[in-house]
Amino acid sequence: MNTITGPASSTEKPFNYDSAANREFGFWLYIMSDLVLFAVLFATFVVFGRAYAGGPGPRQLFSLPYVFAETLLLVLSSAVYGIASSGSRANRISAVMAGLGPAFLLGLGFIFMEAREFYQLIVGGNGPARSAFLSAYFTIVGTHGVHVLFGLIFMAVMMGQVLSKGLTAMVASRLKRLGMFWHFLDIVWIGIFSFVYLVQVA
Amino acid sequence: METPRIRAYAFGFIASVLLTVIPFGLVMASRFPRIGVVAGIAAAGTLQVLVHLRCFLAVRTLSDARWNILFLILTALIIILFVGGSIWIMHDLNYRMM
Amino acid sequence: MGAVGGSLLAGLVILGLITYHRKWPYLWREWITTCDHKRIGMMYIILALVMLVRGLSDAIMMRLQQALATGGSMGYLTPDHFNQIFSAHGSIMIIFMAMPFLVGLMNIVVPPQIGSRDVAFPFMNAVSFWLTAAGTMLVMASLGIGEFSKAGWSGYTSLTEKQFSPDTGVDYWIWAFQIAGVGSTLSSVNFLATIFKMRAPGMTFMRMPMFTWTSLFTSVLMLFAFPVLTAALLLLTLDRYLGMHFFSNDLGGNMMMYVNLFWTWGHPEVYIVVLPAFGVFSEVTSTFSGKRLFGYRSMVYATAAITVVSFAVWLHHFFTMGASPPVNIFFGIATMLISIPTGVKIYNWLFTMYRGRIRFTTPMYWTVGFLMTFSIGGMSGVLLASPPANYVVHNSLFVIAHFHNVLIAGTLFGFLAGYSYWFPKAIGFKLDEKWGKLAFWCWLTGFYMAFMPLYVLGFMGMPRRMHHFTNAVWHPWLILAAIGTAVIVAGVFCLGIQLVVSIRNRKINKDITGDPWDGRTLEWSVSSPPPEYNFAHIPVVNDLDAFTDMKERGTAYVRHERYFDILLPANSASGPLIGLLAFMLGFGMTWYIWWLAIAGVMGIIIVMIMRMSDDNTERVVTADEIGTIERKRHEMIASARNNEQPLRILP
After folding, report:
1. Could you give the C-alpha distances from A80 to A66, A119, A144, C75, C552, in angstroms and in order?
2. pLDDT value at position B5?
């Protein structure tokens, strides 16, 4: 689609700007930079990890079963997205939608649980302005949540595109990039539940 | 082509759940020494990241994805440098001043 | 007020002229909505040159203030105004002059150098430019609407916390940096994808020109460093807007963490601005010495070493913040180590010139000036790298002298060399040599007069950023520095006159063949300016210095029998629209006009979704059109053979 037309001579190489492969590589690079952003937020959390300012700490504030449920939602969402990925590769729209729909709902569930967690902390007087520890906690978990939210918007747009345009090469490429994004968000969450929640409570 | 990938997703999911249950279990049982618990969390987490990379993101040592893997490794090194360096510096400063 | 009036007047004059000459459709079609890397590159450089003038006017005001404000006099600027000026000066010169200049050069040069028709993501390229422009407009808006930051270009906490800087200044600074920073990150993704994926067949990594190599390493630095700035500014924003406690004095905050994070970005940033300049020098030295670059392989490895090590030295910006000796020593040694690969590069340039047939054109002047002057700056850097020595001169004018030494002699001379070297390629005629050399001499002399005194003053103990002082011993040196600044300003005038004279003489200095310098790399194989598509047929590369190789083989100007349709990116209004929405976001957040900020964010999301759903983002240049363009080119080359422009091509 994005190549010059006409036969390739021996000095000719199909020129491929904006092609799917280039976009996927570029997106991967963007994800690498995003990982560095999260890493800095992690480092910040570690630095401020004990700065409770006389207030409550992780043991008082975090509910591990709740976080476990959130984690399951996200991992399941990632796995279910695999159905969409496979469907896209096999050119089956029904499979793609069967994957995207549940993945979206599970992600939405994750966001609701997290929003509820934040709300309860804030009304309990333990919002991000309470201490440096809480500032760091809200920021890293919140940044991850904002990314998930953007992923959900992307997912909704993709459901629309699959239904309206079908599985064109570009639509399939976008699904691949969304998949990368979604799986990497789950990877970041592994870091979060391990080092923001578990290690702090242990 | 299709079935192996579905299998990979299924395996990845089960492995991830297991690798989540283990660290949560270690902490919630609260009967193990802290060092062991932290080591367990780190190990399970690292393994789960690898499972995600392999099963969900299909990252193998393909010649096609050579540059992707190069950048992934570079990113990991940069993260270790930035995070490790920052923690070392701030810990040192805090020890001397705060 | 004068600055606001002057800027507005200049802006209105320009807008008026465009309207009078009915050039809006042309401007909209050819420049504002373009996704062509060549046009985008030129817009970046125009932005950079305008901001160079703005940043220099800040410098003039500071030097004048310091030349006057002694012995009880308070000078002519209030302390608040002075603080804004030095904050704006640094912010503008780094983020809104150096960054656009280097991204502009990369834009113009890299795709043709690798034999490609455009960058990997042309639309995203336009978005990057317009985001940078949005950040620039925020800084310019602060001239008249509200105030700019008074907390320095580095924005240290706790001063930049809301409690101590309640006005709009720090917010303008945060959003200008944050928005421009996103543009830079996107550019880095773009150039990495371009260089990794779109090289012409036969161009292996070790056959890439040095400017492309430095663009690659610069992009790696940008990709990994800018997220740290984004995070640091995000945390400061959360402190200011939502009362969080990352860097506050109370409730667990730690202001030193900001310094740590800022410089984790800040150090790679200075290598981001200098590596492209090094790339320019490699191209210029080899072209005007008439020989291949000496030690190409070692040059690549040295640049790689600089890139890697530059991620591990950032603490040298705050040795005196109080870390223990082991920490300081680690970073001190790492810093000193960087001078080794840098030295390798200097030797390589010298050896390239040795026994070459050197042509002393304007770019070569800038290069020789760089070689001598930058070395001094490098050495003062090694002095600063030693923690005990650093304790003596930290925060003194010695530091200012050092970094201006490397930034002006390195970065700026490099960019000005690149400007004169590639101007004919981009525009179609050469710049006037006489005025160019005069500009160089003014810059060189002016630089020494303005900054060598600062080394002396640093050793005498004068701190930086001083509004007024009483030590009479310092005064003569500051007067000398002010005179030097005036000489630099003369240099800028020379550059302006050079432009006017060159435009007037454009027919005489026309670049007929596209190869005015007997160049060695592929960008010189196309016309000046290049056709939209750069190459009608993608070249096949057989060696380093691909164009020289083609000229020696006789394949440099081969006529092709047939041409094929070429797909190019279509214009898009979404690029400038995203820039405008980003400006709304920044301005709204600065002034707490929440609806404006939200509209900006929502607008950007909507534009992105619309762009993502758009299937018509390309247009076709037909084989016939290409044939016409290429035929004309071959006619021009034939006429050049018969006329005055001496070609070193083989028939």
Report:
1. 21, 28, 20, 69, 59
2. 76
Q: Which residues 58-117 of A have a C-beta within 8 angstroms of C?
A: none
Q: Which of C135, C5, C148, C161 is nearest to C89 (CA)?
A: C148
Average pLDDT value for chain C: 95
Confidence at residue C642, expressed as pLDDT on a 0 to 100 scale: 75
Whole-number Cα distances in Å, C220 to C21, C113, C184: 44, 19, 11
Secondary structure (3-state) at A16: coil
Amino acid, single-letter form, for residue A128: P
At A4 the pLDDT is 37
Element (H, E) at C279: helix C255-289
pLDDT at site B32: 84
Question: Could you write out the DSSP letters of every residue in C587-625?
Answer: HHHHTT-HHHHHHHHHHHHHHHHHHHT----EEEE-HHH
- Are C184 and C273 in contact by the 8 Å Cβ rule? The answer is no
CATH code of A100's domain = 1.20.120.80
* pTM of this structure: 0.95
- A 10 A CB-CB count for C324 gives 12
3-state secondary structure (DSSP) of residue C568? strand
Which pLDDT band, with edges at 50, 70 and 90, does A201 fall under? confident
Q: CB distance C264–B82 less than 8 Å? A: yes
Q: How confident is the model at residue B89 (pLDDT cuts 50, 70, 90)?
A: very high
Token pair, residue C71, equals 């012995």
Each residue's pLDDT tens digit, C40-82: 999 999 999 999 999 999 999 999 999 999 988 899 999 999 9
What is the chain A residue with the closest CA to B13? A79
Nearest-CB residue to C256 (from B88, B93, B95)? B93
User: Taking a C-beta distance cutoff of 8 angstroms, is the pair C335, C385 a contact?
Assistant: yes
How far apart (Å, rounded) are the C-alpha atoms in residues A55 and A62?
14
Q: Answer yes or no: do A32 and B17 touch at CB < 8 A.
A: no
3-state secondary structure of A131: coil
Phi, psi torsion values for C469, nearest 5 degrees: -155, 170
Tell me the sheet residues that pair with C469: C70
Cα C418 from Cα C48, distance rounded (Å): 13
User: Å from B62 to nearest chain A CA?
Assistant: 14
Say what percent of chain C tops pLDDT 90: 90
Count of the separate structural domains present in chain A: 1
Tokens of C466: 């001083």
Task: Taking the CA atoms of B80, B83, B89 and B95 in sequence, report the sign of the dihedral they define.
Answer: negative
State yes or no: cis peptide before C289, omega within 30 of 0: no
- Coil, helix or strand at residue C316: helix
Residues of A in contact with C537 (CB under 8 A): 9, 11-12
- Say what the pLDDT of residue C534 is: 95
CA distance C101 to C183: 14
Q: What backbone phi and psi angles, to 5 degrees, belong to A29?
A: -60, -45
What are B12-40's pLDDT values in tens digits?
A: 999 999 999 999 999 988 888 889 999 99
- Residue of chain B whose alpha carbon sits nearest to that of A82: B9
Smallest CA-to-CA distance from A44 within A127, A128, A124 is with A128
Question: Model confidence at C229, in pLDDT bands (50, 70, 90)?
Answer: very high
Interface predicted TM-score (ipTM) of this complex, two decimals: 0.94
Residue A8 within any structural domain of the chain:
no
Helices (H), chain B: 2-29, 34-51, 66-97
Could you tell me if residue A121 is inside a domain? yes
Torsion angles phi and psi, residue C281, rounded to 5: -60, -35
**Residue B90 contacts residue A47 (beta carbons within 8 Å):** yes
Range of the domain at A67: 15-201
Q: Which residue of A has its CA nearest to C609?
A: A157
- In a domain, residue A188? The reply is yes
Domain assignment present for residue A3? The answer is no
